[in-house]
Amino acid sequence: MVIDTGARAHGRAHASHQFGRGLDNARSGSGSALVLTGTRQSGRTHLLDEVCRMHEGRTIFLTGLRESDLSPLAVFHPLFTRIGIDENTLIRAVPENRRSATDDVGAIIGDRVLSALESFDAGEHALLIAVDDADVLPPSCIAVLGYVARRLAKTRVFLVLVSGTGVDPRLQPLPQLPMYTMTLAESRALIKSVTGEEPPLSTLFELHRIGHGNPVDVRELCEQLTTDQLTGLAALPEPAVVADSRTARWRDVVSNLTAAQRTALTVLSIVRTVEPGHLIQALRSEFDSGSDFDTELAALVSAGHVESIRHVVQVRNHLDRAAIYTIAAPKLRSDCHRIVEAHSLLGERPALATANRAFTADPIVVPINEMIRRTDELALNGEASLAVQVLRTALDTSDAVRRSRLAAHALRIVTGWGFFADAAQFTRYIEPQLLPPGEAAEATVAQLLLNYLQDEAFDEVSARNIVDALTSRCPDSASRLAGVVGYLHVCRNDTEEARRVLAAVDRICGSESGPVHAVSLAMAHLAVVDGTPEPADRQLSSRVAKVREKDCFAESVMSTHMLQKLGRHHDAMNDLERLSTKAISPVERAIVMALRVDGELFAGSIDAARALWDEAETLVPAENCLPSLRLSQRIQILGLIGRFQEVDELADRIHATPFSRAYRTNESRLLWALGQIALMRGDYVSSISLLEQSIDAFDTVGGCWQLQRHVDLIEAFVRSGQPEMGDKVLRTLGARLGARQSPSTKATFARGELLVAKSPDEARMALSRALGPRTAPAPTLERARAHAIYADRLRDESENISHQHPLRTAHALFTRIGALGWADAVGASSATDESTDLRLDQLTEQENQIVELALQGLRNRDIARRMFLAQRTVEKRLTAVFRKLGVRSRAELFAFVAPEDQAGSGAAPLAPHQQIS
């Protein structure tokens, strides 16, 4: 049979109630069993853990193992040991000729288990036996459980079996309790279906937590929230806003309760859970001691208004708590907050206790530093909305100095968690002159960062004035602020304002302290924009090692971004791994992921970049945070993977809302991405126009993509039949770069030289430089493009050397990293190769087998294991294969032997009239 759970709104609360009733019955001598059913990620195991923790008596916990050959002796060993069954006796009790009969084994072992359970002394409480994943146990074990579960009526045992939705026939006669808790993915799908919006991860987590994954509750929450709250731009209300029908139902309930019962309910809506004894003691101190508070609390439990799960009482779910708190009169709410504080009902939950103090009518003044620390704890524990509400409430009862400090702290929280719509109400309370210097600097950074994250203009004069004011009060704070502000201005391509801000603190930059490090980093970014990266590289090398571990998050971002601009991508990726541990809030994590996307794009890891971009989108939508940068990245990724129709749709949407003049850098990057995509598609006229606009908008060669667009422009000119224009761009680029070239810069520049090379020898030398040395090869995407260009030269110049080998190498590399846009552009030529290389006939049978496994992506040790060879033997055979075929890597091996039907189709490379000789 299936227990009738009524409306789906019951969910976890109803399940907890069923468990409590089963344990109470077992304690009185009426044992029973219950099957909890649900999908693997429905929260069924978590609920079982909660029940085990709440049970005050003895508990035996078993778990299912997906091993069909396990015997009941192995699976039930913990149970047999605890209840005193001798396993040797048990083995002798099962005759040899009946051990293969599952039901017979279940009955024989089950009888002995029942006999042991009837004589087992569980003390004053019942014995709880919990079996997780019972549905994956071997059939003989399920037979034992089914036999025992149906015969527990005269024992003091409560047996809980957790199973999937497909219950084994042997367990089907038992009472079943379906779990209606949704998985996080199901909650996301439900919210999107109700609102039409994809919620950011922080909002999704809060809605899922508040609604306990219950579909009815989650839907009710969604229907009561504003668009800003659903999209993560505003904090969720605290307490939660619930449907009118729920508040009306609780008004009817409360109208029939005593004053003590109303107080008890309101206290429970604040503290969530409490031991009955503590609650009754608090009520006695507030009401006539002659009242029977035990009876009044028991009446709330019996009526179903409150549930008692072993040693605690609580209201069934979060939404009911919100409704109770909402309908309570202001004086009653204030009195209950005071009761909670006076009786330390939140004593073991200090963050919530601090929140409680903020809501008292005559608030106990919490020391400001403790208030800041506790609200940080709330935010870190997934209750950022409550932290914001606590600070918002505290503002009304604070003096000017305290109010300014609390507002500054609230601004940092709402900025970090993406609640940008809530920022304005806190900003107006911030008076920098009333703040300690460090907090004044942090508040100013938070305000500027808020503008930067939303692509809005800065209040430049105000920021400069605060830097000037802090210079005399606290030079360290002034330096740190000036460094961060200068960096943000450089990111917006407002170099003049960056110089003005940094000049204000130039006279105090005489030490190697952390704050000065921020100024140094900002100056280094300016140097790169000015085309003089050598001082920046020296500054970074000499200072970063000293202070990197002490850097704040902003300084770490500045340092890592500088490493990317200087082409030190390996160092940058290592720093990003460390920076990921510093990033706590969703916005910080989204910023780190945006930097990692750039790093993966440069390295040619298109699939990794795409996965990171999608992950950042789940944290904070691109339209809310760093929209121009992240949407430019999105267009670039879509182009690289060949989804050109989506590129066109997204570009049209972006062009409908022009970029702010202050963000010409990101507009320039968008134009470069579109110009590169036009190059992939063979639209060279559009590519030239877009790339020239990109360079005009932000004319610098400092940084990876800034340099790559110049080389892309050279390629567009050459492919459109204007090699002389490409040569002119290359000479200008070489003059601007001079001798200051990093290895990555040299490889990209060499690709430009390969495009305009005047002879085959020059082309081969340029190709070698573009591929990079064997010890430090150029990024995969850079090498693939160099191979494709070289193949076009060989074909168009009618060289005796076949152009198919480098062309197919390029196609293989493009395909391997997921750059299908470029792969399709070279696929047509690769597919036209109908010749069969006779060198393949030189391979032995064993070498052919090794090649086949290598092309499947197996590593040498895996190949060795598969073929029962030594790893050293495999390495020797592969070396021989490389020598026979004239290839240098597995990518080239794949290109050499790849079947022709793997080649794609796309835009043709250089036409005959576009020859580069």
What does this structure look like?
The chain is mainly alpha-helical and about 900 residues long. Helix content is about 65%, strand content about 5%. It is built from 47 helices and eight strands. Strands 2-3-4-1-5 form a five-stranded parallel beta sheet, with helices on both faces. The chain has a three-stranded antiparallel beta sheet with strand order 6-8-7. Strand 7 and strand 8 (about 310-315) form a beta hairpin. The longest helix has 18 residues, at about 100-120. The radius of gyration is 35 Å and the shape is flat. It starts with 10 loop residues before the first helix and ends in a 20-residue tail after the last helix. Mean pLDDT is about 80; it is low at about 1-10, about 510-515, about 540-550, about 830-835 and about 900-915.
Summed up, the helix count is 47
Rounded mean pLDDT is 82
Structural class: mainly alpha
Strand order of the largest sheet: 2-3-4-1-5
Instruction: Please tell me what the overall shape is.
Output: flat
Task: Give the helix proportion (percent range).
Answer: 55-70%
Low-confidence stretches: 1-10, 510-515, 542-549, 828-836, 899-917
